[in-house]
């Protein structure tokens, strides 16, 4: 509408089309983001597990398997040299009634072992050296994945068990403390090692902090409530001052609850919440978006009752 005029100026057709496209694009974008929110958590979970499995295979399973393979080859390999070839076309030699095949490195391998490797190497090139044939033979005969993977897992768990028992003993802790002191003295290694140790301690030793209940406390000021974990129930000096029992409460920070504040609060100033530790962590990590299901159901029931009272009043 122009000043001093009683007529309105309607937007042009191009402006109307632009507004229409903006409004129509918003639901599309919201739907895309909603789909990403659904797909991202399981996808990230799968990727993390795949990364852990591939890293373990590359840096632990493959080196151990290679070492075991070389030991077995060294133990069973029979690679004679200088045998007389009776069939030049097939490069076959006979010794003590047993057939051998000459390889490109002028060494001989038993014919049955070579045939087994050749038949199993339909999609791969058959090894042309005696050592290569024996390595492939050991993989086919002794180191099949359906055998090696369960054995490796069992051996790894057993090794971690004995290592944990050894570290729990006084002599194990003594030696490990000396090793850690050596790591802390190295200029570049100590920073990386300290960070890795903090992460591993949080993941594998968090059971040392055992929350007994979930409470809401006024933190960081009056009128502002935060969810916390009760980790202790005794602080004599403070109990004598406030004249009532007190709680030691760990208040994690959102969205990463690895850090937080430890506060001591009077029991009367804590509100105990009906929720589990997992539900409290989900609430904190999601910044309050993920609410326990029974709380939502109770809120919905209260809303229904309120609407019924208003309708009958």
Secondary-structure element order, as H and E?
HEEEEHHHHHEEHEEEHH
Please tally the helical runs, counting DSSP H or I stretches of 4 or more residues: 9
- Cα-atom radius of gyration: 35 Å
Spatial shape? elongated
CATH T-level topology of the domain at 209-309: SH3 type barrels
| Major beta sheet summary | 5 strands, antiparallel
Q: What is the helix fraction of residues, given as a range?
A: 55-70%
Structural class, from helix and strand content?
alpha+beta
Mean pLDDT: 81
Low-confidence stretches: 1-11, 304-313
Strand order of the largest sheet: 8-7-6-5-9
Our measurement of the CA-to-CA distance between the termini, rounded to an integer number of angstroms, reads 47 Å
User: Architecture of the domain at 209-309 in CATH?
Assistant: Roll
> So what's the CATH class of the domain at 209-309?
Mainly Beta
DSSP, total strands: 9
Give the strand content: 5-15%
Describe the structure.
The protein is an alpha+beta fold and 313 residues long. Among the domains are: 169-205, no CATH class; 209-309, SH3 type barrels (Roll). Helices cover 57% and strands 14% of the residues. It contains nine helices and nine strands. It has helices spanning 13-76, 111-120, 130-141, 145-168, 170-185, 189-204, 236-242, 277-285, 293-312, and strands spanning 85-87, 92-95, 98-102, 108-110, 213-218, 225-232, 246-252, 260-266, 271-272. A hairpin with a 7-residue loop joins strand 7 and strand 8. The chain is elongated and about 100 Å long.
């Amino acid at each position: 509408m122009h000043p001093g005029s009683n007529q309105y100026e309607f937007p042009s057709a191009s402006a109307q089309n632009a507004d229409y496209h903006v409004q129509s694009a918003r639901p599309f974008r919201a739907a895309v983001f909603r789909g990403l929110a659904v797909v991202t958590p399981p996808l990230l979970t799968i990727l993390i597990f795949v990364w852990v499995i591939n890293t373990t295979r590359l840096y632990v399973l493959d080196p151990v398997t290679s070492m075991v393979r070389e030991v077995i080859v060294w133990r069973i390999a029979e690679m004679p040299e200088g045998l007389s070839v009776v069939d030049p076309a097939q490069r076959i030699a006979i010794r003590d009634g047993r057939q051998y095949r000459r390889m490109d490195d002028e060494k001989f391998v038993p014919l049955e072992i070579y045939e087994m490797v050749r038949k199993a190497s339909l999609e791969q090139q058959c090894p042309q050296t005696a050592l290569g044939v024996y390595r492939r033979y050991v993989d086919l005969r002794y180191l099949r994945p359906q055998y090696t993977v369960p054995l490796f897992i069992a051996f790894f768990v057993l090794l971690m068990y004995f290592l944990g028992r050894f570290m729990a003993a006084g002599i194990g802790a003594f030696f490990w403390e000396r090793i850690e002191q050596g790591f802390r003295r190295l200029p570049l290694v100590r920073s990386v090692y300290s960070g890795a140790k903090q992460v591993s301690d949080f993941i594998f030793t968090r059971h040392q902090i055992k929350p007994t209940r979930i409470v809401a406390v006024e933190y960081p000021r009056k009128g502002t409530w935060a969810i916390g974990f009760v980790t202790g129930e005794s602080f004599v000096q403070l109990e004598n001052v406030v004249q009532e029992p007190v709680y030691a409460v760990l208040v994690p920070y959102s969205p990463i609850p690895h850090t937080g504040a430890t506060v001591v609060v009077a029991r009367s100033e804590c509100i105990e919440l009906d929720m589990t530790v997992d539900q409290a962590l989900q609430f904190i990590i999601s910044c309050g978006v993920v609410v326990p299901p029974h709380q939502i159901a109770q809120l919905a029931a209260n809303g229904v009752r309120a609407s019924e009272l208003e309708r009958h009043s």
